[in-house]
Specification:
The protein is mainly α and 173 residues long. It is 51% helix and 0% strand. The radius of gyration is 23 Å and the shape is elongated. It starts with 7 loop residues before the first helix and ends in a 9-residue tail after the last helix.
Length: 173
């Protein structure tokens, strides 16, 4: 493509798209590297900037691949299209006025930083989407660690929900 005279910014655009669409969170630095290569080429121009594009192509070729975030976005969009357009739950609505507070805006909101591990039992999705998980990390690259972290968070959140509903573990006499 370089030797054929292809527009270098077109090449950079395709590489950036590969970083976000094909590699994603398996290697989040891929997007950083892609943006840096584009800026490097923009700054240096031809022929020196071609090296940045070549270096990026090598980086992306060997990076672990995942389209989990891409699939999550598609699934979330489809869920939004196929369910009712529900209003924002009352507890998530800002209450800047006294009247809004009286109407129940913000009532029951849990500020995460005021809780252990910043985990709350509060549901943030509308009723038709409650409990849905759209993002399912693959077992490659950094997404292995992301999957572990999600598992930890979900387990802790379940425990928080049990404790807040009074259904916590019972102890034998």
């Amino acid at each position: 493509m370089l030797e054929a005279g292809e527009d270098r910014l077109y090449i950079a655009r395709r590489l950036i798209r590969m970083a976000i669409e094909d590699i994603g969170l398996a290697d989040p630095r891929a997007l950083e590297q892609a943006m840096a290569a584009k800026e490097c080429f923009h700054f240096l121009g031809e022929p020196e900037g071609d090296l940045a594009l070549a270096q990026l192509a090598v980086y992306l070729a060997v990076a672990p691949k995942s389209d989990a975030a891409y699939r999550a976005l598609s699934e979330a969009r489809e869920a939004v299209r196929s369910t009712a357009a529900e209003p924002v739950p009352m507890h998530l609505r800002n209450a800047p006025t006294r009247a809004m507070k009286q109407w129940g805006y913000g009532e029951g909101y849990q500020h995460a930083h005021q809780f252990a591990d910043a985990l709350v039992s509060m549901e943030c999705l509308p009723p038709s989407l409650e409990g849905r998980h759209f993002y399912n990390p693959v077992q490659r690259g950094l997404e292995i660690r992301i999957a572990e972290r999600l598992e930890q968070l979900r387990a802790k959140r379940s425990k928080v929900e049990e404790e807040s509903s009074g259904e916590g573990p019972t102890s034998a006499p």
